[in-house]
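Hello again,

I reread your note about wanting to compare the complex against the isolated chains. To keep things tidy I'm splitting this into two emails, and this first one only covers the full assembly. Below are the input lines as submitted, including protein chains and any nucleic acid or small-molecule components. They are followed by the predicted structure of everything together. The single-chain runs will come separately.
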Amino acid sequence: TALLEVNHVSKQFGNDSKALSDVNFTVNEGEFVSIIGPSGAGKSTLLRCINRMIDATGGEITFDNMNVMNLKKKELKMVRTRIGMIFQHYNLVNRLSVIENTLHGILGKKSTIAGVLGLYNQAEREQAVRILSMLGLGEHIYKRADQLSGGQKQRVGIARALIQNPRMLLCDEPIASLDPNSAKTIMDHLRTISSQMGITVIVNLHQVDVALKYSDKIIGINQGQVVFNGSSKDITKED
Ligand code: ADP
Ligand code: ADP
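Full-complex prediction:
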């Protein structure tokens, strides 16, 4: 069943030409989807419209049967806890440790006094350690974020998203700053998160070969428009 539906979505920044025009696709529960396209195609804009970091100018986005473009502040906060974000530049807090950065992902708590003070309970800490161990970071939980390699930083980014128990992860060029080995580790973890945890994963990529290797579905975007929507098999057949 469809977890995410994007219908006729467009986005225009100011008077510029449209960054997205009439974008349509659906993503099923647990699916691993890659969005590929050249730089400037609109991939990042699309993900930011889905989690409402920015507002689309037209169309409709439905996530878990909710109209994402039409949410009150409370509902929007709730939707954001169900949608984890992974960024190209990790967006960690450098002076905080690995486990503190992970716990920082508990978005709902950030507006409480305990959250502001960085106070987390035992269950939350144990959950953070479990997730970090799963991602191979069990021995680094007290290291400062700025002491980590890029690949390790991105795994903390994934841990920070997972701790909020999301239904879906939106990953914006998660491997674009990584060497091939670290990139493979990250993609393998994302694939496991989709196949074994049942979490829907959407990844922006510009490498077609990586998309072919990992994805259930590939959506090609160019100049703000969907130019391809199919499985890896469909692409290989055309070549
Ligand atoms: P991609 O992620 O595929 O590289 P983006 O979504 O970042 O592409 O960009 C799509 C288009 O939208 C580009 O032309 C870009 O310059 C433009 N764009 C993105 N963000 C903004 C913004 N905040 N203000 C104005 N234009 C933007
Ligand atoms: P708060 O109001 O709790 O401080 P914000 O919505 O202002 O939270 O976002 C704070 C930080 O969280 C920002 O850096 C933003 O990029 C990031 N963020 C926003 N939405 C999400 C999301 N769905 N998942 C993870 N991080 C997010």
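For quick reference: The beta strands are 2-11, 20-28, 32-36, 58-63, 66-67, 83-86, 168-172, 200-205, 217-222, 225-230.

B.
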